[in-house]
Structures are given as structure tokens and as C-alpha cells.
Design goal:
The complex is a heterodimer of chains A (about 900) and B (about 280). With about 900 residues, chain A is of the alpha/beta class. Chain A has 27 helices and 29 strands. The chains are: A alpha/beta (about 900), B alpha+beta (about 280).
Chain lengths: ~900, ~280
């Protein structure tokens, strides 16, 4: 999303789904996992919209959808490629939108080569580093900066260097230098796209996905028929798209389809990224990610960023709103370091920690296993159940010196040292584990003030209803007082590397008997203030001269007029359907992003039915139902003067204001490490070979071949069907992720009391599984047991002429809580998307047999034999 | 035959005053539109939370996603899941079931203690503190809504060791303060709608006409005042026949034939008395 449109957030809001004429839900089981937001899908359906659910299983979402298409897990890019193919083959794109608002007319460099030319690789592949260099992906005559994307890699660094050294052509009066608005030039993005997806025909897609060509055409036609001037379609996805070794590319494929159909920035359109957990959006906005600072500012790199000027120069864009990185960064440093941050000391930029490579969560887990990590905080998470290959995580925890777990109750991650499959099998012995575990009870959201940032970038304040019980404390309390104590300790002795901690402003007012830090004061700091200490109203007020402070530039305005805007709760019936007075959405309370695109290039609504934002010539400003996601008084026919910089360099008809060129990127010249166009690959573990390319899996994926993270031989068809079935995991409405907040609650536990696997009657017949009895499921990494649920809701897929069976597993269970069971995540491997380091949980291989799993040392023996067989199978090949 | 007031002459005077006497009240009830149900079970959980009901056992039933199984003394909302997959169709029906708050309520008719009353909202409510747990209502309900709840009464207050009978109160306490029932409040898709029963019936009829355009088998359930329970205070829009959801297709309140039985018993008694008299005359 960030690379295609400019911001890593949902382009629309859930209430807007009611305006959709067609909703494609894919990579998401929205009714089960977002039941409250799903009311707007139901509303749209009642108004006559077509609701399409493309998903391996027939779920509660499929049950109320107009159409359900069961595809093989992990084949989404093939399916979406088929949709894109259909749009292009039948000239169904919204041409006026595509020509003016996307980079379709842009001409690419001659040296660019597509996967169609290189059998699954783009130009720029470097075998030795398992990755690409991007020069050949840039526009003819212009280099580009990605609005988001990977920056920690060596390639990333090289890219930045190259960009600076080039004599770079700028935008010419707002347009890239080489374009063909007739879309005919053979090297223009539109033609490149057409060639790239030429072989993604309904027939080919049907063979890969295990469906019929008619099903591909039906979905593509539903989207095409419901897009254009008068109609709009929306796409909703969740973590089932992100959790693949090519997850980013799945979302990119959706972005391409939506840009071609002209559905971004318009009511009833957009791509809704449904987040997996409360405030996950918030935790990327003000990140818990290793490579980002607040507001998607990249984390400085140890090698690349020697000083502030260099950082801003290499990470900021010259044009578009990322051209203001200096303002965002200096204001952030002022918020963190206060008075001591001055121009002459570069606002203490030098004190910021640096990254030196990939320090993502799974990489850190490997380092833990290797004994390179001493301590670990786990807060509101339960990797011993919830993370892919949870067995490896438990083994990692056993290698720490200390572990802090903050949760409502003692979860499996806190209890790993005495209650885990490894302890049961005898592999780990409690008395030999050196990890000192501190379980700190956490306060619930009802016991603290604070805000959630939901799936649609909406900040909603929650007020404390009661004091935390006993020793439970809020997260804010914990870290604030921890910080205070660390500072006190540092003051007692000389520490050479303590300047950062000493320099931080760490003085929020404390309230009540527990000395709870004032959450409002924290929010106000995030919002920021001017030189006189007055709350800022918008990020456009930020300055690079040290006169403004702002803890997160995209949240600037959430404390506008000295009022906590996130606590706004005007009921829906007392305001417009957009409901701008309920909570506060980043940026600047804009609900529908890129909404300039809801009007035509001249600033008029595309149609009366779909009007949202338009240019008011009389008043000389943009007006409509929402805050404009555009400079309010920038004319639609504004032509930037030569040499214009920042947002002033963008033309009045370019709606994607965070991008260098103001355009929606069908083709991503920068920002996506595994290719500028989504390309179909098989998952890390697959039953079959890739029908489209000689390259089986994403060549850029991150693999960790090592003990306890072995991979099943793939494709299994080529290895004597050792693990012949497709395995995928999912969630149930009744439980919450790893179960910490649901398996501890009687009223939820009784609704789904036991771990089960969903199999088809055909697979049950094949393997002798009986409904309601036990089954043992195994991969080369682990063996678990589950109750058998034989159901026709599970798919039998006819993949390239052969039946592919699957085992579906909800992953909520563990050994603690009211209801217990084996953890599905024990079976999974760790192989990651190369852009965002997210694991592949939605398409692996496994085997299944009736009865209960081996116990104690027998379990260990079982797995050792299995690994031996896998090694032999690989050797035989 | 329409059941009217004479039915209740067979029951206690208290019950007579508590049930319908023919006057129109602002009767409240539910319209459960199963075409909008997404099976999230928020209604079950909200009901249990508000009414402080216990869990019903942690048993994997294997009946699709339904692990509570049925309505009971401790489960007052229950979502049924019906998987229909064959050559002609692929569908997964979901229906949130609840007490029907019958116009002619068998449970109320047979309650010997007067624990079950007809409230000012036209709903049928069991008073915990009056119920002695005799269980007559359990067999008098044609829908199997009621069962014993052992935990509701402390041991020392139980009669013959029994708990109390439990079922939906339509959140009587919430209604008293102008709130809607917890299940309707929690339902994210307005599958459960609360309101005046007459209005709900009209709404259900309109909705049926729309839904019929796409689903042939759609039908209303318990909307007919002339059925065997005099119509429900809870009405349903179903996508298939009631028995598909485990609902009785033609529910009849068991006390329906009580007046006739009393009449027949009277005739028999008179005949017997006559015979005895005749016999004694002959003697």
C-alpha cells in the first residue's frame, strides 16, 4: 500500500463500504474476524452490492457472500493476475483515471527486463546476495524514492547512493520526463503490465488455483462491471494476504487492479487493510518495528547516515510531501530531546540508535536460539503459541538470561520452562533452563486511559473505568517508571553510552495513587506544539528550524485546539455519514485517502452518484464530505513551475501526494525488493510445481534452514508425496489470536472448547479419519493432535488435473487457560516475506493420520524418523 | 381453534391475571432475521455476561461451529449452525434462537407457584426467587427452551435439592430502564431486532417479500397469531423450513386442549356420578 499509493494504511474506512457496488473480500475472513465492521458489508449487500469471497474455506464470510470462490491457499497472485489480465485484455480499465492518476503512461528504461523474459526474474538479480539492484526499474530519465519500503538492506543502501550520484531529471512541470499518454509506447508501464500478465489467462489461473476458468471470469467481470464513473468496487484483505513469502506482492496485485479500475480515492472504492489485532495500525504508526521511527520515518542506518543533513538528503524525497522529511524529523527530535536539541548539535540526531541490518522479530528469535540475546520483553503477545514455529520460539526463550512477560495471566510464553511439548518430550528440562522469568500482570484497557488506532487509521480514546487490580499496571506506567528507574541507576554511575537516555525528556505528569503517567500529556506530545507551546493543528505547520516539536507527524492535529480530538464522540445520527466528529483519523482527520481522485482531472466529480470531493471555483478551494487529502487551495489545473520542490512540485491533477510524482504506482520502480510487478510463485512448501515459471518460489524470500526449522521437501509431488496435503491456519470468531484473552474467559471458551482440524469427507476417507475423533498432524518440524471436523466447507481442489487436499487449523490453543490443546503454530516453518519479514502461515504442506499423537520420548523419536525420511527423500532426488 | 381466555380458567387465578386478557399492550419482542446473521455468537456472550449465566460445559460437539448445542437454563441465546452442501447448493445457515415469549405460554399456564409471570412488556419471565424448581414448565414448553439451572440458588434455599428453571427474560431489567436487550444491542448486523411486536411483524413481512426475490424457501416463523401458540413474541425469518434449524414446524402449546379435557373430564365425572347414582338407586 505504501509503495503503491504513498501511505501504509487502509485507503478507505469501513463505513464507506456501504457505498460499494462490489466488494471483493480476499485473504480475509471478515465476518468472523471483523464482525463489527462487517455490518457495512451487509449494508452494501442489502443495497444491492455483489459481495465476492475468494478464500480456500467456506467460512461465515462466504455464507453471506453473493459468490464464493475456493482457491488453493497461496495462489492469490495468480488469481489477481487473472483479474488484471482480464481488465487489460478486454480494455476494461478506467482509461481517463489511469492516464492521469497512475504511472501507466510512464516510459521505463531500455535495460528493464521482465519475468516473462527471464523465467521468473526481473533485471537486476544478483544471485550472491539473493536480491535485486533497482537501477533498471526506474523511469526513463528519472530516479524515484519509495514512499515506503525496505531500507535496512545493503541493496537499499546502494540504491540510496546511486540515487544521489545520478544526474537526476526532475519532474517536468509536474510530469515524469518520458510519458506516452496514448499508452502505446512498448516500454510504457501499461504495455509492460500487459505483457507481464499475458499468460495469466483464466485457463492458466484455473489450473493453478484449482477452480474453473468461469470462476475467474465471473469475479473479474463483477469487478469490471462495478467500476468506472458511476460505480465503484472495494477490496478488503487481512493477514491472510500478509502472511506469505510474497505477501507484499499480493497487496500490490490488488493495488494494480484497483488503480486500473479507477477505484482508489473514491467513495465505495479503495483497499481496506483489515488489521489483525486492536491497535496494530497504531503500532506501525508509532512503531514497535525495528526499522521505523514514528510516522514511517526510516530508522537511521549505522553506515549510511552519519549526520542529520545526510539522513534527510538520502531518505527524503525531493518532491511530494516526503520532501518535508527535514520538518518531520527535526520536530520529532525536539519532542524527544526538548531544549537540549538545538540546531548547532543537529537536534541530537547523533544520539538516535542505528540499525545495521535486519533485526526483525524472527531474526532476533534465531539470535536467541544461538545465545546472542540476553533479555527479552514480551508484552501483549504470546510467541509460544502465536508465532510461526512456536516450538523454535520456546527453545529460544530457554536460552535467555531473563524474560519479562506482561499479560493478564501467566500465558504459555511465561510458562514455557515447565509446561511445553519440549518439556513433556524430555528435550528440555526445567532444572537446566537458566532463563529467569518475570511475569508482570498487565492492566486491561478498561483500567487505563489511552487510545486505539484501528484498522482505518482512526484514533479512538478510551477512558479508565476503574483502577487496575492488585499489582496490574498499564503499559504506560510500566515503561515510564522503568525509564525513570533506569535513569536513576545511570545517574549513580558513569555509563559511556547513556547519553541518549539522559537526554530524553521524561517528565509526564503523574496522577493518582499509582503515579500513573498522564496519557493526555503523552498524546499532546505526539500531536506537538509550536515555539510558544501551543498545540499544533496540522503537520503542515511543522518547521525544520527547531521551533516546533511533534512526536509523530502523521498524528499532528489529534490535539488540535488543545482538545483531545480522539475523544470526540458525536453520535452518527447527529452528523454526516462520513462522521468526522467521531474520533480522529490520521492524517489531518482525513477518512478517505487520496480523495482528490474522487474528482476528474478538472476537479469535477466523476459522477453525481460517486461525488465526494470537488473543486469550488468560486471559493477557490476543494470542498466535499471529507477533509481534502490535498492542498486545500491548490487548483486542479496547477502546473508546477520549473525547479519546484516538495509538494509544490506536484501537479494539480496528481492525487497521490506522498509519492515523488504524485501518481499511483502500477509499477513500483522503488520500494519493493522482490520486484516491481507481482509475479506468481509457489509458497515455500507446496504440493505442486510452479506452472508459470521455472523459478518455483519467490527467489528473494528469507529462509532459515537450521535445526528445528527444517523445510518439508517441496514440491511434494516430486518427493514421493512425503507431505502431500496443504496446511493452512486461521482464526475463529470465538477466540482471540493465541488465546490469552479468550481461553481465559469461560463464556468464550465454551463456544470453541477444543482444537480441531477441518478436512473434507474425501480426505477423511483417504486417511481413515473419523468425525469427532482424534487426528495426528505433522510436518518435519512438529507433530500435534486435534479433533477431526469433517466438513464440506473445506475445499477439494482440482489443481492441474489432480486433487489437492487440505488440512485447516485454527491456531488458538495452548497449554494454559480454561480450555487447552496443541498449538497449530508448532507445525509451521519460518520463511519470510523479504520486504516486511512476515511469516508464511497460509500455505504449507503436512500429513495427517487418525488417532492421537505420540507422547513423551516417543514424540521425539517420531520426529527424528520423519526428519530422516525427509533427508532421504531429498537425497534420492 | 383460537385459544382464548377460557384456556386459563384451567390454571391458577394468579396465572389468569398474569396472561393475556384480550387487551392490547405495548408488547415487546424480537425479530430475528437469519438472513443477516453471521454466526458471531455475540448475542450468546452478551446474554451470558449481562444475565450472569454460567458456562454450559467445555464440550466439543462436532455439530458444525455449535458447541453450546441448545437453549437451556444457562444458555438463553443459542446460535444454530446448519451446513447444507450438496450438488444443488452450498450454504451454511445460522440462526440465533431464543425463548419465543408465546402469546399462549405453556410454561406460564402450568407454573404452580406463580413464579412465571406475564410482564407489563407482554413478555414471559421466570422469577428466580419464587421458582421452586418443580420443572412443570420444562415439559410444557413446545420448543424445549427451559431447563434447570442448578447454580442460581444457594443450596439451603433449594426445594428438594432443585435449582431454578431458567430462560430468556428479554432482559427485563434492561427494559425497565429503557435499554434494549443485551443480545440485540450486541448484534453487529441487526440480525436481532428488538421492538414493539406489531411493528416487528410488519417489518418481518416486508423483509420476507424482499428476501423471497432471492430465496424461494424463505419464510416467517411464529408470526401468525392463529398458530398453536397464538404467535410468538419472538418471530423469525428463516431461509428454510423450521425443522432444518431444529425448530418444531407446528408448535402447539400443550395446554391447548386443557379446556376440552376439563370439559371431557366434567362429562365423565357427571356420567360416573350419574352411573353411581343410578346404581345406588337400583340397590
Amino acid at each position: 500500500m505504501g509503495t503503491s499509493f504513498g501511505r501504509g494504511g487502509a485507503t478507505t474506512f469501513q463505513q464507506d463500504l456501504q457505498n460499494s457496488d462490489c466488494i471483493l473480500i480476499m485473504g480475509s475472513n471478515m465476518a468472523e474476524n471483523h464482525p463489527v465492521g462487517f455490518q457495512w458489508v451487509m449494508e452494501a449487500r442489502e443495497r444491492g452490492a455483489t459481495v465476492v469471497h475468494v478464500d480456500p474455506r467456506f467460512t461465515r464470510t462466504s455464507a453471506v457472500a453473493t459468490m464464493h470462490v475456493p482457491i488453493r491457499p497461496g495462489t492469490d497472485i495468480a488469481f489477481l493476475g487473472g483479474v488484471i489480465h482480464y481488465i487489460l485484455e478486454h480494455d476494461r480499465a478506467f482509461t481517463e483515471y489511469v492516464v492521469n492518476y497512475t504511472n501507466a503512461p510512464v516510459i521505463l528504461r531500455e535495460e528493464f527486463r521482465d519475468t516473462e523474459d527471464l523465467d521468473g526474474f526481473f533485471s537486476g538479480w544478483q544471485e550472491e546476495r539473493n536480491g535485486y539492484v533497482f537501477h533498471s526499474w526506474m523511469y526513463e530519465g528519472m530516479d524515484l524514492h519509495g514512499a515506503s519500503g525496505q531500507r535496512e538492506s545493503e541493496e537499499g543502501l546502494e540504491k540510496q547512493e546511486s540515487r544521489k550520484s545520478d544526474t537526476m531529471d526532475k519532474l517536468r512541470h509536474g510530469e515524469p520526463p518520458a510519458m506516452d499518454k496514448t499508452l502505446q509506447h512498448p516500454r510504457c508501464v501499461y504495455q509492460v503490465l500487459k505483457r507481464h500478465y499475458e499468460r495469466y489467462t483464466p485457463e492458466m489461473v484455473a489450473r493453478i488455483c484449482g477452480i474453473t476458468p468461469g470462476q475467474v471470469i465471473d469475479v473479474a467481470e463483477a469487478l469490471c462491471a462495478n467500476s468506472g464513473r458511476e460505480r465503484t468496487s472495494a477490496i478488503a484483505y487481512s493477514v491472510a494476504w500478509t502472511q506469505h513469502t510474497f505477501g507484499v506482492q499480493m497487496i500490490r496485485a490488488a493495488a494494480i487492479a484497483q488503480l486500473l479500475l479507477g477505484n482508489i480515492g473514491r467513495p465505495g472504492g479503495g483497499i481496506l487493510a483489515l488489521r489483525g489485532h486492536a491497535s496494530i495500525q497504531g503500532s506501525t504508526d508509532i512503531p514497535t518495528l525495528f526499522d521505523l521511527l514514528p510516522g514511517y520515518i526510516p530508522m537511521p542506518h549505522a553506515k549510511a547516515h552519519s549526520n542529520l543533513a545526510h539522513f534527510v538528503d538520502s531518505e527524503g524525497a525531493k518532491t511530494g510531501f516526503w520532501g518535508n522529511l527535514d520538518k518531520y524529523m527535526v520536530s520529532l527530535l525536539k519532542a524527544w530531546f526538548g531544549e537540549s536539541a538545538k540546531g548547532e548539535n543537529e537536534y541530537l540526531f547523533d544520539l538516535l540508535p542505528r540499525i545495521s541490518g535486519d533485526h526483525s522479530t524472527y531474526r532476533s528469535t534465531m539470535a536467541m536460539v544461538d545465545g546472542k540475546v540476553k533479555g527479552f520483553f514480551i508484552c501483549g503477545e504470546n510467541p509460544a503459541v502465536g508465532s510461526a514455529n512456536s516450538g523454535l520460539h520456546r527453545r529460544a526463550l530457554a536460552n535467555l538470561e531473563w524474560l519479562v512477560v506482561r499479560d493478564f495471566s501467566e500465558n504459555e510464553s511465561a510458562a514455557f520452562w515447565y509446561d511445553s511439548p519440549e518439556v513433556q518430550s524430555g528435550e528440555l528440562q526445567p532444572e537446566l533452563i537458566g532463563t529467569e522469568v518475570f511475569w508482570m500482570p498487565a492492566a486491561a484497557h478498561t483500567e487505563k486511559d489511552g487510545s486505539f488506532t484501528n484498522t482505518q487509521r482512526l484514533l479512538q480514546w478510551h477512558h479508565k473505568a476503574l483502577e487496575p487490580q492488585d499489582e496490574a499496571r498499564s503499559e504506560l506506567w510500566f515503561y515510564y517508571h522503568l525509564g525513570k528507574r533506569i535513569r536513576e541507576k545511570l545517574n549513580e554511575r558513569e555509563e559511556p553510552n547513556a547519553d541518549l537516555i539522559r537526554a530524553l525528556t521524561w517528565n509526564y505528569p503523574e496522577k493518582g495513587p499509582l503515579h500513573e503517567p498522564d496519557a493526555h500529556a503523552v498524546l499532546r506530545e505526539i500531536n506537538g506544539w509550536d515555539a510558544k507551546g501551543r498545540a499544533l493543528a496540522s503537520y503542515t505547520e511543522l518547521k525544520a528550524d527547531g521551533s516546533t516539536a511533534c512526536g509523530c507527524w502523521i498524528y499532528c492535529g489529534c490535539f488540535k485546539d488543545e482538545k483531545n480530538q480522539t475523544a470526540n464522540r458525536t453520535p452518527g445520527r447527529e452528523q454526516s455519514w462520513v462522521a468526522p466528529e467521531w474520533g480522529w483519523a490520521w492524517p489531518a482527520n482525513r477518512r478517505l485517502l487520496y480523495n482528490r481522485a474522487s474528482a476528474d482531472p478538472c476537479g469535477k466529480p466523476w459522477s453525481e452518484r460517486k461525488q465526494y470531493l470537488w473543486w469550488d471555483e468560486e471559493k477557490g478551494q476543494w470542498t466535499g464530505y471529507d477533509t481534502p487529502d490535498f492542498e486545500k487551495t491548490k487548483r486542479p489545473d496547477y502546473i508546477p513551475p520549473d525547479g519546484a520542490q516538495r509538494e509544490e512540485a506536484l501537479a494539480g491533477w496528481h492525487p497521490f501526494i506522498m509519492q515523488d510524482d504524485g501518481l499511483g504506482w502500477l509499477f513500483t520502480p522503488n520500494g519493493v525488493v522482490d520486484g516491481p510487478l507481482p509475479t506468481y510463485f509457489e509458497p515455500q512448501e507446496s504440493p505442486v510445481a510452479n506452472l508459470l515459471y521455472g523459478q518455483q518460489s519467490n527467489p528473494c524470500r528469507q529462509q532459515f534452514p537450521r535445526a528445528f526449522n527444517e523445510y518439508n521437501p517441496s514440491p511434494s509431488a516430486a518427493y514421493g508425496d512425503l507431505f502431500p496435503f496443504v496446511l493452512y491456519t486461521y482464526r475463529l470468531t470465538e477466540h482471540h489470536t493465541a488465546g490469552g484473552m479468550s481461553r481465559t474467559v469461560a463464556h468464550l471458551s465454551e463456544l470453541q472448547p477444543e482444537f480441531f482440524c477441518e478436512v473434507t469427507p474425501e480426505l477423511a476417507e483417504l486417511r481413515g479419519l473419523k468425525h469427532g475423533e482424534w487426528a495426528t498432524i505433522f510436518t518435519v518440524r512438529a507433530v500435534i493432535e486435534a479433533r477431526v471436523m469433517v466438513t464440506k466447507r473445506a475445499p477439494v481442489l482440482n489443481v492441474d488435473g489432480g486433487a489437492v487436499h487440505s488440512v485447516g487449523l485454527p491456531y488458538h490453543w495452548g497449554s494454559k487457560g480454561i480450555v487447552t490443546g496443541d498449538s497449530a503454530n508448532d507445525l509451521l516453518h519460518i520463511a519470510l516475506d523479504p520486504n516486511v519479514h512476515i511469516q508464511e502461515t497460509k500455505g504449507l504442506t503436512c500429513d495427517i493420520r487418525p488417532g492421537r499423537r505420540p507422547r513423551g520420548p516417543a514424540m521425539d523419536r517420531f520426529l527424528r524418523e520423519l526428519r530422516e525420511r525427509a533427508i532421504q527423500a531429498k537425497a534420492k532426488k | 381453534m383460537t385459544l382464548t381466555i377460557d384456556l386459563t380458567t384451567a390454571t391458577s387465578a394468579r396465572a389468569q391475571s398474569a396472561t393475556y386478557l384480550g387487551e392490547r399492550r405495548d408488547r415487546r419482542g424480537f425479530f430475528t432475521d437469519t438472513t443477516l446473521c453471521i454466526g458471531c455468537k455475540a448475542c450468546e456472550v452478551a446474554c451470558k455476561e449481562w444475565n450472569e449465566l454460567p458456562q454450559d460445559g467445555y464440550t466439543f460437539t462436532g455439530m458444525s461451529y455449535d458447541n453450546t448445542g441448545e437453549l437451556s437454563g444457562s444458555t438463553w441465546r443459542h446460535v444454530a449452525f446448519v451446513e447444507q452442501f450438496d450438488d444443488s447448493r452450498s450454504r451454511w445457515l445460522m440462526e440465533s434462537d431464543v425463548c419465543k415469549h408465546c402469546t399462549h405460554a405453556g410454561c406460564l399456564d402450568v407454573c404452580p407457584t406463580g413464579a412465571i409471570v406475564r410482564t407489563e412488556f407482554g413478555t414471559v419471565v421466570i422469577q428466580d426467587d419464587v421458582c421452586n424448581g418443580c420443572g412443570y414448565c420444562v415439559v410444557a414448553c413446545p420448543f424445549g427452551v427451559i431447563s434447570e439451572r442448578v447454580d442460581a440458588k444457594p443450596e439451603e434455599h433449594r426445594t428438594h435439592g432443585r435449582g431454578t428453571m431458567g430462560k430468556c427474560t428479554l432482559c427485563y431489567d434492561r427494559l425497565k430502564t429503557g435499554e434494549e436487550p443485551a443480545c440485540a444491542k450486541a448484534c453487529p448486523t441487526e440480525s436481532i431486532q428488538y421492538g414493539n411486536v406489531d411493528e416487528l411483524r410488519e417489518r418481518a413481512q416486508l423483509r420476507l417479500e424482499r428476501v423471497r426475490e432471492s430465496f424461494d424457501g424463505a419464510q416467517l416463523y411464529l408470526e401468525n397469531e392463529n398458530d398453536g401458540i397464538g404467535g410468538g413474541g419472538s418471530i423469525f425469518l428463516l431461509l428454510d423450513r423450521p425443522e432444518v434449524y431444529g425448530l418444531p414446524p407446528h408448535p402447539v402449546v400443550p395446554t391447548k386442549h386443557l379446556p376440552q379435557m376439563w370439559r371431557a373430564a366434567g362429562v365423565a365425572a357427571a356420567a360416573l356420578a350419574g352411573a353411581v347414582a343410578l346404581a345406588s338407586l337400583r340397590l
